[in-house]
Specification:
By secondary structure, this protein is mainly α. It has one domain. It has helices spanning 3-17, 28-78.
């Protein structure tokens, strides 16, 4: 496939597959670069949110385990 056909294929893909594009007056190369950068930024933000959620729920799990152990110890002492 020659360069012209590849550019056409990329432009067609963006038009068909990427909602809201083209959103700026740019060539297909710059549009693709902008889309890739935007997607990478979104992925990084999602990865950060997932790490935060994992840590948050890990702490909740630790606190729940501590509470269950305390309750079990209290129950055992009262038997």
């Amino acid at each position: 496939m020659n360069a012209r056909a590849e550019i056409y294929a990329l432009a067609n893909f963006i038009l068909v597959e990427v909602p809201g594009e083209p959103s700026q007056s740019q060539g297909v190369g710059h549009t693709a670069i902008r889309i890739i950068r935007d997607q990478r930024a979104r992925i990084e933000a999602l990865e950060l949110a997932v790490r935060w959620a994992q840590q948050y729920f890990w702490r909740i799990g630790e606190k729940a385990a501590e509470a269950m152990m305390s309750a079990a110890l209290r129950d055992a002492q009262h038997e």
